[in-house]
Amino acid sequence: SYWLSTANVDKTTIGLFLFVQTPYTFKFLWSPLMDRLLLPGVGRLGRRRSWLLVTQLLLAASVFMMGQTDPVSHGVMTAVWALAVAFFSASQDIVIDAYRIELLHQDEQGAGAATTQVGYRLGMILAGAGATAMSDYISWGAVYAIMAACVLGCAVVTLFLPEPKVRAAVVTTGRY
To answer: What is the pTM of this model?
Structure first.
Protein backbone atom coordinates (compact mmCIF):
# COMPACT_ATOMS: atom_id res chain seq x y z
CA SER A 1 0.00 0.00 0.00
CA TYR A 2 2.79 2.40 0.90
CA TRP A 3 4.65 1.62 -2.33
CA LEU A 4 1.50 2.23 -4.35
CA SER A 5 0.72 5.49 -2.56
CA THR A 6 4.27 6.81 -3.04
CA ALA A 7 3.94 5.93 -6.73
CA ASN A 8 0.79 8.09 -6.83
CA VAL A 9 -1.59 5.22 -7.54
CA ASP A 10 -5.15 6.36 -6.81
CA LYS A 11 -6.76 5.26 -3.54
CA THR A 12 -9.50 3.23 -5.25
CA THR A 13 -6.91 1.10 -7.03
CA ILE A 14 -4.94 0.70 -3.80
CA GLY A 15 -8.15 -0.45 -2.12
CA LEU A 16 -8.74 -2.99 -4.90
CA PHE A 17 -5.26 -4.42 -4.25
CA LEU A 18 -6.65 -5.76 -0.97
CA PHE A 19 -8.31 -8.48 -3.05
CA VAL A 20 -4.91 -10.01 -3.79
CA GLN A 21 -4.99 -11.49 -0.27
CA THR A 22 -7.90 -13.72 -1.35
CA PRO A 23 -5.71 -16.84 -1.66
CA TYR A 24 -5.41 -16.94 2.13
CA THR A 25 -9.20 -17.30 2.32
CA PHE A 26 -9.30 -20.17 -0.16
CA LYS A 27 -6.10 -22.05 0.64
CA PHE A 28 -8.22 -24.93 1.93
CA LEU A 29 -8.99 -25.69 -1.74
CA TRP A 30 -5.44 -26.71 -2.68
CA SER A 31 -4.11 -27.77 0.72
CA PRO A 32 -5.30 -31.41 0.26
CA LEU A 33 -3.25 -31.60 -2.93
CA MET A 34 -0.17 -30.28 -1.16
CA ASP A 35 -0.84 -32.65 1.71
CA ARG A 36 -0.96 -35.79 -0.40
CA LEU A 37 1.04 -35.23 -3.58
CA LEU A 38 4.74 -35.98 -3.71
CA LEU A 39 6.40 -33.62 -6.17
CA PRO A 40 8.42 -35.20 -8.97
CA GLY A 41 12.13 -34.46 -8.95
CA VAL A 42 12.41 -32.56 -5.68
CA GLY A 43 10.24 -35.17 -3.95
CA ARG A 44 13.39 -36.96 -2.83
CA LEU A 45 13.69 -34.20 -0.21
CA GLY A 46 10.46 -35.51 1.30
CA ARG A 47 6.87 -34.41 0.94
CA ARG A 48 7.00 -31.40 3.27
CA ARG A 49 10.46 -30.10 2.43
CA SER A 50 9.92 -30.43 -1.33
CA TRP A 51 6.67 -28.44 -1.21
CA LEU A 52 8.29 -25.89 1.10
CA LEU A 53 11.28 -25.47 -1.20
CA VAL A 54 9.15 -25.10 -4.33
CA THR A 55 6.77 -22.60 -2.71
CA GLN A 56 9.69 -20.57 -1.37
CA LEU A 57 11.44 -20.47 -4.74
CA LEU A 58 8.24 -19.42 -6.50
CA LEU A 59 7.49 -16.91 -3.75
CA ALA A 60 10.96 -15.37 -4.08
CA ALA A 61 10.58 -15.14 -7.86
CA SER A 62 7.13 -13.54 -7.50
CA VAL A 63 8.34 -10.99 -4.94
CA PHE A 64 11.26 -10.08 -7.19
CA MET A 65 9.08 -9.79 -10.29
CA MET A 66 6.48 -7.69 -8.49
CA GLY A 67 9.23 -5.25 -7.54
CA GLN A 68 10.26 -4.93 -11.17
CA THR A 69 6.86 -3.67 -12.27
CA ASP A 70 5.69 -0.09 -12.46
CA PRO A 71 2.39 0.11 -10.57
CA VAL A 72 1.41 3.33 -12.35
CA SER A 73 1.90 2.32 -15.98
CA HIS A 74 1.53 -1.46 -15.52
CA GLY A 75 -0.84 -1.77 -12.58
CA VAL A 76 -2.34 -5.00 -13.89
CA MET A 77 1.07 -6.69 -13.97
CA THR A 78 1.79 -5.43 -10.47
CA ALA A 79 -1.53 -6.91 -9.35
CA VAL A 80 -0.82 -10.24 -11.09
CA TRP A 81 2.53 -10.53 -9.33
CA ALA A 82 0.99 -9.44 -6.03
CA LEU A 83 -1.61 -12.17 -6.44
CA ALA A 84 1.18 -14.68 -7.14
CA VAL A 85 2.97 -13.52 -3.99
CA ALA A 86 -0.20 -14.03 -1.96
CA PHE A 87 -0.83 -17.47 -3.51
CA PHE A 88 2.68 -18.76 -2.86
CA SER A 89 2.75 -17.17 0.57
CA ALA A 90 -0.53 -18.89 1.49
CA SER A 91 0.86 -22.14 0.06
CA GLN A 92 3.99 -21.76 2.17
CA ASP A 93 1.73 -21.23 5.17
CA ILE A 94 -0.04 -24.54 4.44
CA VAL A 95 3.24 -26.44 4.27
CA ILE A 96 4.76 -24.82 7.36
CA ASP A 97 1.70 -25.72 9.44
CA ALA A 98 1.71 -29.31 8.17
CA TYR A 99 5.48 -29.58 8.73
CA ARG A 100 5.16 -28.31 12.28
CA ILE A 101 2.28 -30.62 13.12
CA GLU A 102 4.05 -33.69 11.73
CA LEU A 103 7.47 -32.89 13.16
CA LEU A 104 6.58 -32.00 16.73
CA HIS A 105 5.15 -34.17 19.47
CA GLN A 106 1.74 -33.31 20.88
CA ASP A 107 3.23 -31.58 23.95
CA GLU A 108 5.40 -29.38 21.69
CA GLN A 109 2.60 -28.10 19.45
CA GLY A 110 1.90 -24.95 21.50
CA ALA A 111 5.53 -23.84 21.42
CA GLY A 112 5.73 -24.75 17.73
CA ALA A 113 2.66 -22.66 16.91
CA ALA A 114 4.12 -19.75 18.87
CA THR A 115 7.42 -20.08 17.01
CA THR A 116 5.72 -20.01 13.61
CA GLN A 117 3.85 -16.88 14.69
CA VAL A 118 7.13 -15.22 15.66
CA GLY A 119 8.52 -16.07 12.22
CA TYR A 120 5.39 -14.72 10.56
CA ARG A 121 5.55 -11.47 12.57
CA LEU A 122 9.26 -10.97 11.82
CA GLY A 123 8.49 -11.44 8.12
CA MET A 124 5.68 -8.91 8.35
CA ILE A 125 7.99 -6.41 10.06
CA LEU A 126 10.59 -6.89 7.30
CA ALA A 127 7.99 -6.59 4.54
CA GLY A 128 6.21 -3.66 6.23
CA ALA A 129 8.33 -1.32 8.31
CA GLY A 130 11.62 -2.69 6.97
CA ALA A 131 10.60 -2.22 3.34
CA THR A 132 9.23 1.23 4.04
CA ALA A 133 12.46 2.29 5.77
CA MET A 134 14.63 0.85 2.99
CA SER A 135 12.56 2.69 0.36
CA ASP A 136 13.86 5.99 1.73
CA TYR A 137 17.37 5.00 0.60
CA ILE A 138 16.98 2.60 -2.33
CA SER A 139 14.49 1.99 -5.13
CA TRP A 140 11.41 -0.15 -4.62
CA GLY A 141 12.83 -2.64 -7.11
CA ALA A 142 15.89 -3.04 -4.88
CA VAL A 143 13.70 -3.31 -1.78
CA TYR A 144 11.73 -6.15 -3.33
CA ALA A 145 14.95 -7.81 -4.52
CA ILE A 146 16.21 -7.78 -0.92
CA MET A 147 12.94 -9.28 0.31
CA ALA A 148 13.17 -11.96 -2.40
CA ALA A 149 16.73 -12.71 -1.26
CA CYS A 150 15.44 -13.18 2.30
CA VAL A 151 12.94 -15.74 1.03
CA LEU A 152 15.75 -17.47 -0.87
CA GLY A 153 17.69 -17.59 2.40
CA CYS A 154 14.75 -19.43 3.93
CA ALA A 155 14.80 -21.83 0.97
CA VAL A 156 18.44 -22.63 1.71
CA VAL A 157 17.52 -23.36 5.33
CA THR A 158 14.79 -25.71 4.05
CA LEU A 159 17.49 -27.90 2.50
CA PHE A 160 18.90 -28.59 5.97
CA LEU A 161 15.65 -29.23 7.83
CA PRO A 162 14.73 -32.76 8.87
CA GLU A 163 11.78 -34.32 7.06
CA PRO A 164 8.98 -35.39 9.40
CA LYS A 165 7.88 -39.01 9.44
CA VAL A 166 5.13 -39.62 6.90
CA ARG A 167 1.77 -39.95 8.62
CA ALA A 168 -0.61 -39.47 5.70
CA ALA A 169 -1.15 -41.27 2.42
CA VAL A 170 1.04 -39.92 -0.37
CA VAL A 171 0.02 -39.87 -4.01
CA THR A 172 2.90 -40.71 -6.33
CA THR A 173 1.16 -42.48 -9.21
CA GLY A 174 -2.37 -41.15 -8.98
CA ARG A 175 -3.43 -43.87 -6.54
CA TYR A 176 -3.78 -43.67 -2.77
So the answer is: 0.86
